[in-house]
Amino acid sequence: MPDRLPDDCFALPPGVDWTPVDEALDLLRAKLTCVTATETIALAEGAGRVLAEPLTAQRTNPPHANSAIDGYAFAWSSLAGGETGDLILIEGRAAAGHAFTGTVPEGAAIRILTGAEMPDGADTVVLQEDAEASDGRVRFRAPRKQGANARKAGEDAETGAEVLPVGRVLTPADLARAAAVGITDLPVRKRLRVAVLSTGDELIQPGADPAMPGIFDANRPMLSALAAAQGYEIADLGAMPDAANAIASALDRGAAEADAILTSGGASSGDEDHLSRLLTGAGDMVTWRIAVKPGRPLALGFWNGVPVFGLPGNPVAAFVCFLVFARPALGAMAGAGWREPQAFTVPAAFEKSKKPGRREYLRARLDGNGAAEVFRSEGSGLIGGLSWSDGLVELPDGALDIRPGDPVRYLPYTSFGIGP
Ligand code: AMP
Ligand code: MG
Fold it and tell me: Cα of 226 to ligand 1 centre, how many Å?
C-alpha cells in the first residue's frame, strides 16, 4: 500500500501564484479613488459623514480670554512676587455671557465665574476654594504662575485655520469642533451606495421551514450591517441560486442602484461558481488567490462599470475579507481615503505553530489580563466564533511559533468601525 498523500499536497508552494495580502492591498489602494458626489448638509446631521472639503475656522475660539474656574481675577503683578495675596475685592462680577465692563485696578480682584471674559486689568484667576473673601478684601495663596486658570483667546483655533481635513469621517467631537468655530453647514460626500447579494443553491431565507434542507443565508444580514456600519446606504439584492442568468440580473440591478457590489459565494472556480465565471465573461475580472486564511478566493471585477467584491461564501471568510479588503477599498471609494485599523500589540494567551506562506486572522478577544485568547477552532464555517470574538489576531505571512506571552498584533473590531 502506498503512503497516504498529505492533505495539502496540491497546495501551491508559498510565493508561487498566491498574492500576498500586502500586495493585494497595495494594488487596491493604488487603483481605487473616490466615486461619490458632494452635497451640503446641516452640521447636526454630520456624524459619520465624509468631509468633501477641509473646514476652516469662521472665527477665533475662544473669541476672548476667559476664566477656566469660579474664583477671583486679578493682575499677577498685584502680588509683587509674594506667595500670598491680600487684595481689595471690587464691586461687581464677571460671569459667562455677562462681561464686566470696567477695569480691575492694580491691587484689586473681582469675583469671576467659569467662562466669563477676563476683565481688563486682570490676567490670572485664583480658585474660590483657595481664597477667603470678607470685609471687602480677598486673601489667598498665590496660584503657581501668571495667567493661571485663564484661557487665552484663540488657544483652540484662530480664524482661517484648518480645523478638519478633507476626507475626515466626522466624529461627535468633530461636530463640536466645527460648531465652536462658527460652522453651520458641512460639505460632505454623498453616502456610498453598496449592493449586497448572496449566491448559492443551498441558501434558504429567514422564515423558511427549519426542517427544509439548506443553509440559512447568514452572509447577507452580516455584510449589509458591516457596510451600513461604515455609513453606507445598502441596496439589498437578495439571494440568488447558482444560475448565471439570475446572478446576472441581480448584478444588473446592483450596478444600476449602487456604487459597489458585495457578493458572497461562488467566487472560486468550481462548476457552480457562476459569480466568478460571469465576471470573467464581463472582462476586467481578476480572481485573486490571496494568501490569507480564512479567505481565498476573492473575485474582484467590474459589472457595467461598477466594482464587484466577490467575497468567499464561508461566513467567517466573508467577514474577514470584508474587513481586510473591502472595508478600506470602499472607504477610498467613499472619499475617506485608505484607512488602516488601529492595531495593538498584546501578549498571546494561546499557543500556535504557523506554517509559512499565508497571513492568518484568528478570531480573538482579550482576557482579563489584556492577553489575546483565540476561539477554540479555526473552522471558517463557525459563525459562533465570530460572535464570540471582539477582534482579530493578525499573524504575519511567514512561519511562526507562538507561545503564551509572546507579543501578537490585535485588531479590535471597534477599530474597523464595528462592534458594540
Ligand atoms: P462557496 O464560496 O459558494 O463555495 O461557499 C462556501 C461555503 O459557504 C459553503 O459551505 C456555503 O454553503 C457557505 N455559504 C455560502 N453563502 C452563504 C451564506 N449566504 N450564508 C451562509 N453560508 C453560506
Ligand atoms: Mg456556493
Answer: 18
